[in-house]
Design brief:
This protein has 799 residues and is an alpha/beta fold. The chain has 4 domains: 23-106 and 117-220, P-loop containing nucleotide triphosphate hydrolases (Rossmann fold); 238-406, 3-Layer(aba) Sandwich (Rossmann fold); 461-579, no CATH class; 585-795. The chain contains 24 helices and 28 strands. The strands form 9 sheets. Strands 3-4-2-5-6-1-7 form a 7-stranded parallel β-sheet, sandwiched between helices. The protein has a 6-stranded parallel β-sheet with strand order 8-13-12-9-11-10, sandwiched between helices. Helix 18 (597-613) crosses helix 24.
Length: 799
């Protein structure tokens, strides 16, 4: 793009000032106005990288919409940063008076339905666990039938920004590999990536499929940014000195707490950063004992093992600028992006990159000095979750800095003087074959799925599951117990969850997971727990300690396996039911009137036209999508579907083929696993439609994609004919009106479910996958699915 005629730098300064009330730093302007988006921003902590990315994208999207991806995917290493980034983005967008929605992708029931507007520019914010798992088609804490939608929208027409990726372990390898694979496998629109860090080395991104594909050189701060007349100079040279504390960490952390108490300066803010949640809790409790009944200094515990419901209040407290006399005890969650400034910072020894980040929270603004950064040594047994070699490397460096300046500018100069080059090992590298294997979302017949944990966080032992608490009567939760809302999900380390489940007994209950085949909550054994799983616990199980009205601080520690107290349930009032192989929650709506197949089809086709009109052309697939939309519900003419609709609403006209009953009620099919979209696709093939259209028809609920097969407990016909998903070979459809055309009476042919041969569904689907690539094929699926759901919501009176 050419910037010659718009003088965009001056325009960006005005844009930035309107959003933030301050002038941009020179490097922020360079990012927003560069011809090519830099792939790496190397900027010290406190230099405003969040505003650089979000406002830079917003400005480019406003000025150059055809060359700027439609979605900004803002990926953070830790959960505590998500709400802060969401709050900042929304404030800036409101100040700019822009209609750009901001959505958080954190698991649980998604009430925002962001995916229903693929044509609308949006900011999507989440952690590496939630975003990378979705980009790999295995979204943590998400329905498997929704995986392809997230996969499509995050890998097409999106700008990925990785904030402080040096804290993402194996996520660095996966992020760069995905960037390379998007280039080689093709996407719709563009899908570049930007990594922002003070300590990430450029060659960490030089993975096999991304090597040499950098669109532009790294963006670094220059002497212009460090001009003493600019506000950034004060931040980069803020007065802070490094010193070692004369105690070491231990199991009970009492000695550390005593030194914290002594080093805290009355009337100021002290930040204590501990590497492990349990040690952070120990410091917090010891400080409570030292404080006894006094209310000063205020104490705050911050880590990643809180539910969003409680974490929101804690984060609001953390961000208070008038906190005054306070000690904050935290884990690594504060070392990247959290905008707090402490006079005194006390940290356990950590890898060098983490030490640099943590030092950035001491006298961050330059107005809270003189600051002091104290470090606590660790013995090798306490090194986890870090490698002992990384801890030893950092120990050597901090000893050299004893009593010296550790401002961001000083640390940058120290790195150059020491010729520091941080090592990074690519332990698990996502390859093309891995990505193609992940495209198939059909459940393994043994009940297992491909484990992507190694690609999301490498071998990190703190890989999480999500747990939530509910109260119910009876021995087991009822099937209608709704899916969890985001506010009630608590991230728990996988090993901690396994050990906790082992401690449960008959009195406290057991954990449950949703079985999408049997449509019920089933007990989960500790050995079955895997990353990304969502586990329901009874409130009687305990395991969580939140503040009470009578003692707002005493028990505010979040996930606590030792707590036996009942946990407050945060069950949402109107959450949707869980998805299953038998049902489609997105299609269940209270309609004011029943709709025929033709009426609903016309509505879907109209929605698809609206979506496509606002998106770049997708070549020949415009026609295939239009044909798929026209035929997508032909299979609802099947007797199994019509019987189920009439059972919900017996007053329906017997001569009309219905798509919607006009009544709220779950369709009960006989046979139970009937999928109308399979019947629709088979009818389309029977009448000569292109396989591309038939595939999109079959995939429009995310349940029939690369293969057609019977489910494990389906009852097969005694006559031995082919049968899958409630559809049998030789089943018939009457002629059905599809609006602008009709589907003639049809005898369905299920021979495509057989493997091998030119008519094999799987063979043809894999050929289509090879031709289009996984990203583009999933995107086309999503456009039809979006049109269908949007039409259903409008028919039900939802905006």
């Amino acid at each position: 793009m050419s910037n010659a005629t718009k003088n965009p730098e001056s325009s960006f300064e005005s844009f930035f000032r309107q959003a933030t009330g301050t002038d941009p730093y020179p490097y922020q302007s360079r990012f927003a106005t560069a011809d090519d988006i830099p792939h790496l921003i190397q900027a010290p902590t406190g230099a405003g990288k969040t505003a650089t990315a979000i406002l830079g994208w917003l400005y480019r999207r406003q000025q150059f919409p055809d060359q700027t991806p439609r979605r900004l995917v803002y990926c953070l290493p830790m959960r505590v940063l998500v709400e802060q980034s969401e709050r900042e983005a929304m404030k800036w967008i409101e100040n700019l008076k822009l209609a750009v929605p901001v959505h958080v992708l954190m698991g649980g029931a998604d009430t925002e339905k962001w995916y229903l507007q693929p044509e609308v520019p949006a900011v999507l914010i989440g952690t590496q666990d939630m975003l990378l798992s979705r980009a790999l088609n295995r979204g943590y804490a998400a329905s498997r039938f929704h995986w392809p939608i997230d996969f499509a929208l995050l890998n097409n027409d999106s700008l990925w920004v990785f904030d402080e990726p040096q804290l993402m372990a194996g996520g660095v390898s996966t992020s760069s590999q995905l960037a390379g694979l998007r280039k080689s496998l093709d996407v719709y629109g563009s899908c570049p990536s930007v990594w922002m860090s003070a300590t990430l080395e450029p060659d960490w991104l030089d993975t096999i499929d991304f090597a040499g594909k950098f669109p532009a050189p790294p963006l670094e701060l220059t002497s212009e940014d460090y001009d003493p007349q600019r506000n950034l100079y004060k931040r980069m040279t803020a007065d802070k000195t490094l010193r070692q504390v004369d105690v070491g960490s231990s199991g009970d952390m009492r000695d550390v707490a005593k030194r914290v108490w002594e080093l805290h300066q009355h009337g100021t803010q002290t930040l204590v950063v501990v590497n492990v949640v349990e040690r952070a809790k120990a410091v917090y409790r010891a400080l409570q004992s030292l404080r006894k009944k006094s209310e000063a200094p205020a104490l705050l515990l911050v880590h990643s093992r809180f539910r969003p419901h409680e974490r929101k209040r804690l984060n609001d407290e953390l961000q208070r600028k008038d906190a005054g006399n306070r000690i904050i005890v935290a884990t690594q969650v504060v070392e990247a992006g959290v905008d707090i400034s402490a006079r005194t910072l006390i940290t356990e020894l950590a890898p060098w990159a983490s030490i640099v980040q943590r030092a950035g929270r001491c006298n961050r603004t330059g107005d809270d000095g003189p600051g002091t950064v104290y470090w606590i040594d660790l013995n090798e047994k306490l090194a986890l979750p870090y490698e002992a070699t990384d801890i030893d490397f950092a120990r050597q460096k901090v000893k050299k800095l004893e009593g010296q300046d550790v401002s961001p500018r000083a640390l940058e100069e120290f790195k150059k003087a020491e010729n520091l080059k941080l090592p990074f090992e690519h332990k698990h590298v996502l390859r093309r074959r891995d990505l193609l294997d992940l495209f198939d979302t059909s459940p393994d017949l043994s009940g297992n799925d491909i484990d992507i944990a190694r690609f999301v966080r490498s071998d990190d032992p703190d890989t999480d599951v999500q747990v939530f608490w509910r109260e119910w009567s009876g021995d087991a939760p009822p099937p209608e117990e709704p899916r969890p809302a985001r506010a009630e999900l608590c991230s728990v380390p996988i090993m901690s969850a396994k050990k906790f489940l082992e401690t449960l007994d008959d009195k406290r209950g057991e954990g449950y997971i949703w079985d999408h085949l049997s449509e019920e909550w089933v007990p989960v054994a500790p050995r079955q727990v895997r990353p990304g799983m969502v586990i329901m616990l009874p409130t009687t199980a305990g395991g969580y300690a939140a503040a009470s009205n009578s003692s707002p601080e005493a028990s505010e520690v979040g996930w606590d396996p030792t707590s036996m107290a009942a946990v407050e349930s945060l069950r949402p009032a109107n959450a949707p039911p869980e998805d299953s192989a038998k049902s489609d929650p997105e299609s269940v709506h209270q309609l004011p009137n029943p709709l025929s197949v033709a009426q609903h089809t016309n509505n879907v086709c109209a929605e698809l036209e609206l979506v496509l009109a606002s998106l770049p052309a997708i070549d020949a697939f415009d026609g295939h999508l239009a044909k798929a939309a026209r035929w997508h519900d032909a299979g609802k003419a099947h007797a199994t579907f019509q019987e189920a609709v009439r059972k919900v609403n017996p007053s329906l006209d017997a001569e009309t083929l219905w798509a919607k009953s006009g009544k709220k009620g779950k369709l009960a099919y006989r046979p139970p696993y009937f999928r109308h979209e399979l019947a629709s696709a088979l009818a389309a093939l029977r009448h000569g439609l292109a396989f591309e259209a038939a595939y999109l028809i079959a995939a429009h609920h995310g349940k029939v994609r690369l293969s057609i097969r019977s489910l494990p407990d389906e009852e097969l016909p005694d006559d031995g004919r082919l049968f899958a998903l409630g559809v049998g070979d030789g089943d018939t459809l009457p002629e059905v009106d599809l609006g602008d055309e009709s589907c003639p009476a049809t005898e369905l042919d299920l021979t495509p479910m057989r493997l091998g041969g030119e008519s094999s569904w799987t063979g043809r689907a894999l050929k289509l996958l090879a031709e289009l690539g996984p990203f583009r094929l999933a995107y086309l699926e999503t456009l039809l699915r979006t049109a269908d759901v949007r039409a259903s919501r409008k028919e039900a009176g939802h905006a």
